[in-house]
Amino acid sequence: MNAGYLTMKKNKWSLDEQAMFLMNIGELLARGYSLAEAVQSTLYYLPFNKQEEIRACIGSLQGGESFYENLIKLQFNVQLISYVFFAEKHGGFAIAFQDAGSMMTSRQRTVAKLKKILYYPLFLMAFTAVLFGFVQQILLPKFTALFLSMDLKRNLFMLFIIGAGKMLPIICIVLLLFCIALLFYYHLKIKKMDSMTKSRLYTKIPFIGSYFSLYYTHTITQQLSYLLSGGFSIYESLQFFQQNKQQLLYKEIGTFVIEELKTGERLETAFEAIVFLEKELMKILKHGQENGKLDQELAFFSSFCINTLEKKINKTIKLVQPCLYGFVGLLIISIYLAVLLPMFQLLDGF
């Protein structure tokens, strides 16, 4: 078992591999396979270095270990592990595994889209920065000296390049110091906070705080809806939240809400105190309890949150890309005119 565990640590799974593995298992489970049979079947579609790990996983399952525990050994993403953890409680393996894989695939697709959008503008900015440095350090001083000797005025773009050349190093140093300060603050203070306090802090970040709020609400309501649809009560579902040791946020939320319920608070009132969740959740909880379809209400609201999040991300991407290109274009035009206009001024001076 130790040898298998060492192999698992050596061959780390990419997020795409993890998502595909769970989606394949979920599809086989939906076709009537048992968990062990589904894992065995996926073995033949994996790279050779992963097959040995899955064989060790199958041995562990036959030995009585849970699939959730095996994924921890395989060093799977904690969010995917949480899906499996709750699936082992409510029994809806097929849909939970497929949703987990779809969630991770969607996230990877969004990350890839962001990288694709940012790579080219960042390359242009780096190239422009080199060109800017060349013009500012070599060409402009010569033009300036020449202009002074001929008693000609410097044009607006020359002044802009000279001013930017003086300001950019200061701005870069300030940004670097700010990033270092944030890093120290994170390690010295934020890292030591409990998960609920950190989540509350993240949702207060300007511009992107609402993204965190939508994501937290999506994950919480989705897992809660799975458990409720599996036949568990609210109290039992929250107890399962408490047992999740891989994601402390679930554990802390479960503990907090249970304590609130013990004092006589209503469910929606208890969740209202969790300020980093969407405000509409309280209305959903109240309405779901009134019509007796809380599991379906939460499932629908979870889908609404993730769809809203994806739309906001796509909207931000569409906004960021033109801004980056516009900034790079402005720099290039300024450099071009700062070099070209002095030549015309010199020609006019003769």
UniProtKB/TrEMBL annotation:
Intracellular or extracellular location(s): Cell membrane
Keyword Membrane: yes
Cellular component terms (Gene Ontology): plasma membrane
Domain named Type II secretion system protein GspF: residues: 21-141, 221-342
Chief place of localization: membrane
Membrane-protein topology: Multi-pass membrane protein
Transmembrane segments: 117-139, 159-186, 323-344
Pfam families: T2SSF
This protein's record includes keyword Cell membrane: yes
Domain of life, per lineage: Bacteria
InterPro entries on file: GspF/PilC, T2SS_GspF_dom, T2SS_GspF_sf, T4P_ComGB
Alphabetical UniProt keywords: Cell membrane, Membrane, Transmembrane, Transmembrane helix
Assigned protein family: Belongs to the GSP F family.
Name of the molecule in the record: Competence protein ComG
Organism annotation: Niallia nealsonii
